[in-house]
Amino acid sequence: MKIGDFPQEIRPYVMPEPRGEMAYSCLGCTREFDIDELLYTCPECGGVLLLRDRELERARELDGKKWRQIFDYRKMINNRALKGIFRYYEFIAPVIPLEDIVYLGEGHTPLVEANNRLEDMVGLRFFFKNDGLNPSASFKDRGMACALSYVNHLARKKGLNNLLAICASTGDTSASAALYCAYLDDFLKAAVLLPHGKVTPHQLSQPLGSGARVLEIPGVFDDCMKVVESLAENYHVALLNSKNSWRILGQESFSFEIAQELDYEVGDKVVVLPIGNAGNITAVMSGFLKLRGAGIIEDLPKVVGVQSEHADPVYRYYMEEDSTRRRFVPVSVRPSVAQAAMIGNPVSMPRVISVVDEYNQVAGEKRVFVVQVEEQEIMDWMIIANRNGNIACTQGGESLAGFVKAVEKGYAGPDEIGVLDSTAHMLKFINFQEMYFQDSFDPQFNVRPRGELRNAPVLVRPDRIRTYPGPGKPLGKKDMDQFVREMSREIAGMLGLEKK
Ligand SMILES: *Cc1c(COP(=O)(O)O)cnc(C)c1O
Ligand SMILES: [Zn+2]
C-alpha cells in the first residue's frame, strides 16, 4: 500500500524518523556512554552494557491504541527497511536512518498452534513460534539485523572501511554474522571462532558458504568467548557476540511480534525459551516491558526460561528463593543436545538478574520462572513435536520439555496458553535426531531412544526383481514392466494395502 492510501490519521506515523537518543548504560556502575563508538563492556568498570533510549518516554505522546494501529498499518507498507524487525522502529533502535537498515528477510516468523493430539499430551494449549524460519535459520538474525544496521550506519557516517567483525559462537551466531557481513561485503569482513567439534556440520557449513574466515578452537564455547573478548579488548574489531547490546535490541522484536499477532492480549500467555548466553531471555523480557511501558499491552505474560541439567547455571542461581542469598556460580558444561544453549557462564547474566527483578516488580508478582530439564526429555519432546507437524530443533524441544515441566509445577495454569520459542530450524540440528534414531549417542549425553519414536529408512530390493535401473542405465520395456509390477507388489505387502 502506498503512503497516500493510508487513512489520514495514520499517514504521519507510518514512515518513522530517527529521533531517539540512545546511550550505553552500564549495569555495574550505572554510567552512560555515547553510542558514537562501538562499546561492548563499560570502559570504566568493565561491566555489561545495555542500550537505553533516553527519549523512550516520548512514546507516551501517543497512546497504546495509536501505537497498535501504527504497527498494524505498517504491515501493509512496502518499504524494505520496515519489512523486518524495524516494523517496531521506535522501540528498537530509533537512531538508525531507514536507508542504513539491513533487511535480509528476518522476523515475522509464524506462530503455529500445536495440534489437538500434542496439546492433549501436554495438557495446555500452546503455539510454537518458529524462529528457525529466519534467513540463517535461527533467531540470531533478529539481533544481527539490528547490530549490522547500526554498524552500517556508523560506517557510512564516519567513512569507516576495512572493518573486521568477529564473534564466538555455539554455531548460530556465526552463521548469522557471516550471512549479514557477506551482504555488506564492501567494507566489512567476518571472522568466526567456533569450538572445534561442538557445532553441527550444517552450522559449520553456513559461515563457510558465506565466505567468512572460520577458526576452530579446541574447548567449549565459554573458552572461545574468552579469546574473542581478549581480541575485542586489544584490537580493532567489531564484536558481534551478545555482549554487543545492539543485538539485544533486535531480539526484542520477538516479543513485539507475539504481542501483535495475538492482538496485544498477552496477559494469559506463557512465553517459553531456552537459555544459553541469556541474551534472548533478556531481550524478550525487556521487549514486553517496553510495550507495557508505552501502554501497548496491559499485562505482562509469564516468561519461563529452560536449561538442560548439563548446562544450568541460571537455573541454579534462581533455585535459591531468597534473592538476597543468590550467588551466581558458573558451571562446567557437559555435552548437551541443546548445543546452542550449552553455556556455563552466560555473558548476559547481569542483564538477566536486573531485568528479571524489574519484570516481577512491574508485574507486581513473580512472572519469571526458570526450569531444568533432562537431555532425554529434550530429545523425546522434540521428536514428539515433530511427529505432530512441527519443525522444532533440539532447543525447541527444550522449550517444549520446559513447558511440560512448567505445567507440572503449576507455573502455567489451565487458563493459560504457551508460546514456545523454537529457536532454530530442525534441519540445523538433525544430527541429534540421527543419533536418536540410531541409538548412537555418546554415553555422556544420557539419551536412549524410545522404541516407538524411532524411525529408519527401509531399502526395498526384493531378489525376484531381475534387474534394477541406475543412473544412466534405464531399463528396457520388459525389465521395466517387471520392476514396476514386482516393486508395487512388494510395497503393497509391506504397507498392508488392499487390492482394489
Ligand atoms: C543462541 C541460541 C540459543 C540460546 O540463546 P541465548 O540468547 O544465548 O540464551 C538457543 N537456541 C538457539 C538455536 C540458539 O542459536
Ligand atoms: Zn560501569
Q: What pattern of helices and strands is seen along the backbone? A: HEEEHHEHEHEHEHEHEHHEHEHHEHHEHH
* Alpha plus pi helix count: 17
Mean pLDDT: 96
**Which CATH class of the largest domain?**
Alpha Beta
Structural class: alpha/beta
Global outline? globular
Do you know the CATH topology of the largest domain? Rossmann fold
- Please state the oligomeric state of the protein chains shown: single chain
Q: β content, as a range?
A: 5-15%
Which hetero compounds are present in the coordinates?
pyridoxal-5'-phosphate, zinc ion
Instruction: Count the E strands.
Output: 13
Gyration radius (Cα, Å) is 25 Å
Main traits of this protein?
500 residues; alpha/beta; Rossmann fold; 3 domains; six-stranded mixed beta sheet; four-stranded parallel beta sheet; binds pyridoxal-5'-phosphate; binds zinc ion
Fold blueprint:
Layout: H1 11-14, E1 22-26, E2 32-34, E3 49-53, H2 64-74, H3 89-92, E4 111-113, H4 116-122, E5 126-130, H5 140-158, E6 163-168, H6 172-183, E7 188-195, H7 201-209, E8 213-217, H8 221-234, E9 238-239, H9 245-251, H10 253-261, E10 269-274, H11 279-293, E11 302-308, H12 313-319, H13 349-363, E12 368-373, H14 375-386, H15 394-408, E13 417-422, H16 430-438, H17 477-495
Parallel strand pairs: 5-13, 6-7, 6-9, 7-8, 10-11, 10-13, 11-12
Antiparallel strand pairs: 1-2, 1-3, 4-5
Helix pairs in contact: 5-6, 5-9, 6-7, 9-11, 10-11, 11-13, 14-15
Bound molecules: pyridoxal-5'-phosphate and zinc ion.
Pyridoxal-5'-phosphate is lined by residues 138, 140, 172, 242, 274-280, 340-341, 393, 395, 423-424.
